[in-house]
Every structure is written in C-alpha cells, then in structure tokens.
Amino acid sequence: MRRKAQKIPALKGEFKLALSDPDKAETIAVSLEKQFSLNNLSHSETEEEVNESTNNFSPPINNNYQNDNINSIQPSEVIKIIKKLNIKKACGSDGITNKMIKNIPCTMVFALTEIINNIFNFNYFPNAWKTAVVVPILKPGKDPTIPENYRPISLLTP
Hints:
Blueprint (H helix, E strand, L loop, with lengths): L10 E2 L4 E2 L2 H15 L8 H14 L17 H10 L13 H5 L3 H17 L9 E7 L11 E7 L2
Antiparallel strand pairs: 1-2, 3-4
C-alpha cells in the first residue's frame, strides 16, 4: 500500500506567504538554492582537477569510437540487479515501477543489456535518464511552514 502524499501547507517565503503550489515550489527551490552552492569551476586548480578526472574516466567522444577496454555487461548480471530491486521504491517521471521491471520478460532483459553496453561503448547517457523529479520531504519533527525544513528527494527514471 502506498502512503498518500502529504499536502504542503502555506510556506513562509522571503517576502510573502506562498499559498499556491507553484509559489510553494518556487519558495522551496529558492530555499534549496541558498542551502546548496555550486563548485567554483573558475578556480584554476579545481578546473584542472575536474578536467583530469573526466579525461581519465572516459576517452574522447567520437561517433565512430567504441571502447574495447570495457567488459560487456552480461544478461545474468542485469538479472541479478533486477532481483535486488526494492518494489516499494517510488518510480520516476516515466511511471515505470521496480515491480514492473521485476516482471519483464527475458527478451527485454537482453534488450536492456544491449542498451547498457551501448551506453558504455559510445559514452552516451540518454538525457531523459539525467532528469529527476525532485520531491520535498519534511524533516521529522520540523515546522512544515518553513521551507528550510524540507529535504529534496530526487526520483530518477530507472
């Protein structure tokens, strides 16, 4: 059984009370922006470290390039991972649940294995898989009207 999503009450924004869902979303987004900061990539040492680590991680992208150094994933490995999935986890924006994935036919396991191997071979990760639905969850025992009392949970497409 799934719990019903709790409605977020009016939030105390910076300049006004957020009553509508879009205003609440914006208030929480502003709060999260203040709490989290981006890495300073204009710092030359940080930029150099990021470039070095990404260059060591993946070869230059070339549409005709295939990486022979990566071992292919086998369908048996995909099946092991699928068996470990928790069916009580929330689904992403595509609506595909872990329970659905656990019940896919063997032919789909082979197709999924091929997709995974191509992701590694061509160094291409689909944009849809880089997008998350962010759900604010109230921290236990905190005042629900204060935006800083919510933590973000990112629901990814499996």
